[in-house]
Every structure is written in structure tokens, then in C-alpha cells.
Amino acid sequence: MYSKFAFGVLLLLSAFVFAQNSKAANTVMAGGKPVHTYAQLPAVNKQAPAFTLTDVAMKDQTLDSYKGKYLILNIFPSVDTGVCSASVRHFNEDAANLPNTVVLCISKDLPFAQKRFCGAEGIKNVVMLSDFRSDFGKKYGVELMDSAMKGLLSRAVVVIDPSGKIVYEEQVADISHEPNYDAAIAALKK
């Protein structure tokens, strides 16, 4: 049988594993089926996690690159899908009228594909950033852990104020749906 010490260690280990699993996964829908993201989005009123992403010129961009500005992180699986490209177009229009605000459109697409899309669509008011060589998806909890889309990012929006604090977040419940643009824009005005 187990000694009291071994039983205590086993109980403690079980509690730790349960705690890790309970905070780790978040469930969203994709094609009518549940898919799991790496974790929950960072919470409102917390400092935004630092990140390094790659722009269309293959240069690193960090959270500090946009210090002192409002940021809208438009996070999505791939610019090559209808809903994702619609969100980039929508935020591109909104961004033209937002003072002291930068919209970062973030996906796992290669920078070459992002640049090609922006050129073909006349997208000029947003910054396209790729997570193809970083841990952004894990830090922000949006990397998909299963399904055919494993490794891509879920659809989410995070708004960060000029001090680096998160003022709004939305994990879109179904990847096939667009985010709540109005709520994200409204968070800039609070």
C-alpha cells in the first residue's frame, strides 16, 4: 500500500494536473464541431503579454513597437478564408477613422501571403503580422490544439490601451462568425 507521504504527493500531483488542464483549454466551434484553444484570452484590466510577430517586410514587431497607441488585435486563422478576409477589410475601413489607434491583423499566414492579399485588396490602414515563427498563439491562448485547423489561431479580438492594459477581449464562439466590431471600437472610447 501507499505510505501517507506517497499518497499526499499523488494527491498534490493530481490537483496540479487538474488545475493546469482546467485553465489551459478553451472551447470554440469550427464547422459545427468543438475545437480547443491553448488557453483563455488574457483578461481585461491586465497588462497585455509581450509578443514578437513578423511583418510583411519580414521584420520583427513587438508590443513595444506600438507603445502609446491604442491597439486592436484582429486575430484569425487565415486571410485565405472569407470570414477572415472580411474582418481585415472591415477593420481596414474602421482604422482610417480611429485616432491614435493601430489595427494589427494577426494570423499564421506567411508574410508573403499577407502582403499579396493587402496588395490585391487595397488594404492600407491595418498592419498585417504573422505568428509563423513565434509563440503569440500560446501567450494569448488562441492557438488551436486539435481538429484539421490545429496550429492555426482562433478568431478573437483584443483591444489594448496606450498604457498596455487590455480593455476589451472577445473570443468569437464560432470561428465561422465575424467578431463584434462595434464592441471593439466602443472599447476605444471608454
Task: Map the helices and strands.
Layout: H1 4-24, E1 26-30, E2 33-37, E3 52-55, E4 60-62, E5 70-75, H2 82-95, E6 101-107, H3 111-121, E7 126-130, H4 136-139, E8 156-160, E9 166-171, H5 181-188
Parallel strand pairs: 5-6, 6-7
Antiparallel strand pairs: 1-2, 3-4, 3-7, 5-8, 8-9
Q: How many angstroms does the end-to-end distance come to?
A: 61 Å
Helix fraction, binned, reads 25-40%
Strand content range: 15-25%
How many E strands?
9
What is this entry, summarized?
The chain has 190 residues and is an alpha+beta fold. The chain has helices at 4-24, 82-95, 111-121, 136-139, 181-188, and strands at residues 26-30, 33-37, 52-55, 60-62, 70-75, 101-107, 126-130, 156-160, 166-171. It contains five helices and nine strands.
Structure characterization notes:
- This protein is an alpha+beta fold and 190 residues long.
- 31% of the residues lie in helices and 24% in strands.
- It is built from 5 helices and 9 strands.
- The strands form 2 sheets. It has a 7-stranded mixed sheet. The chain has a two-stranded antiparallel ribbon with strand order 1-2.
- Strand 8 (156-160) and strand 9 (166-171) form a beta hairpin.
- The longest helix has 21 residues, at 4-24.
- Residues 5-23 have low confidence and may be disordered.
